[in-house]
Each structure stands twice: as structure tokens, then as C-alpha cells.
Specification:
alpha+beta, Jelly Rolls, Arc Repressor Mutant, subunit A, 2 domains, 6-stranded antiparallel sheet, 3-stranded antiparallel sheet, 10 helices, 11 strands, HTH_AraC-typ_CS, Cupin domain-containing protein, sequence-specific DNA binding, DNA-binding, RmlC_Cupin_sf
Length: about 290
Amino acid sequence: MKPRLLKIHSPEIESFSARRDLTPTMNSIWHYHEELELVYFKEGEGTQFIGDNISRFKTGDVVLVGANLPHYWRFDQDYFEAGKKSADVYVIHFHSHFLGERFLEVPENRELKKLISNSARGLQIQSPKLSHIIESIINTVEASSSKRLLSLLEVLFQIGSTDSELNPIASLGFKYNYLSEEQDQVQNIYNYVLNNYQKKISLHEIADVAKVSPNTFCKFFKSRSKKNFTDFVNEIRVGQACKLLIENKLRINEVCFESGFNNFASFHKCFKKVTGKSPLHYQKSFVA
């Protein structure tokens, strides 16, 4: 399973790229690039794949993805239907050495150097000053010339400060080791599961999507994703269940079947394994 290498184009007169995306199709493929990527979801919700992690993303999230870390944000179907929800995402790409090879060696930049190193696993950013971090991200995208640079430095130092809570996303042991001939397989598998998680997906069915034999698929998927296919599908289903529980429009037993589980015992077990909470306790933590 091979993520695509994307080339990020920055204007020749600028040392980094900053933009605002208003469509849910921004880089909507499993990909990686040499630049770090800082993302703020002003409006948006769906499933995020970062390294070997599968989880939900939502409005207000701020994420820093390290260099060459495969990732993919899949917006929920509501964002692709006319007249429903709209995406609004701020994205900044920059090299670790965008201010020169020796910039990070300056003693005053030790926190920034540590932040860039820790971003190798992807970081979910939480902070008492999150509103200030978000303001600086928006300023970086909307400002011009040297003000953009100052805003980017400000946001990076804010994130790297000691009072920020930086939660690693990918597992410590995740390594990118995909073969070049596996260009589109992971994308096809991800898309197929996201479109069909509500029904039973047979081994023959998914093997056909990956264009390998059923006997080969299990070993192939486990060796590349570091998890078996059943766990992968269940994580997708639990992610959808989390969304439905937060929306609080269905009873918990209805959420179970709507998410693709065929019995409540299996749903409860998988949900607690992934989230660490029962479905009811998870819902209570979001719904007053």
C-alpha cells in the first residue's frame, strides 16, 4: 500500500505555502510530502488517517503532520451534498529548514526544534491558548509578505510552548516502508471500506478491490498497515459511531447497527477497545 508523494508548490518569493480550502476534496488521497503540514479545521468533520492511526476529526481541530508522514482526511458525505455542510480549512506547509539549515541550532529555538522532531508521529494540538494559536494560523494565511512569516513563527512557538498539550497520533513503532508498485491499493481499500462499512465486507470482496488473492491479502494488509483488516474495519465503524453518539439523534442500539455492527455485544467490546469508554460513557462526555 503506497501513499502518493505530493509536491507542494510555494511561490518563488516565499519560503512556505499557506492557503485556505473551501472544498472537502483538499488532497483527498493517501499521501505524504517533504514539508510539515499544519491544519486548522474551521469547519469540517470526517475520518482522518495519519500513519497507522484512524480517528475522527472535527470542527476546531488543529493538527501538525511531520515530514513524510502519510496522511489522508476524508470528509463525511454531508460535505459533498449540495446545500448541506461546507468545509473551511486553513493549511500551512513548510520545510523544517525553511529559515535556513542552522536556524534550529540557535539555543532560543530548542523548543521549536523539539516540536519539529515530535511531529514525526503527527500531533493533535490542545492548549489553553488554542484560540490564540488558531488566530495566528488564520493570520499566516491572510497576511502578506513579512507579516506571514512572523505569524507562522508565532504560531509555531505558541504550539511548542510548555503549556501546550501535544498528543502523538501515529504509534511509536510506525514506519513508512511501502513498495513503489503499491501506488493505489491503500487508497482503493480505504475508499471501499468508508463507502461500505455498514455491511459485511468479505475477504474475497476486499481482496478483489486490492487486486490480490484472498490468501495473500491478510498477510499483505497486516504487514503494511500494522493491523489486521477486521480491526481496521472496526475502527472505521467505531469512528462513525462516535459521530452518531455526539449528534445524539439515535438510541445507542440504533447507533450500533447504523455503524455496521451486527450485534450489541460486539459493538460494545470494539467501542471500548478503541476509545477506552463504553458507548454510553462516551456519549455522556459530549452530551449534557
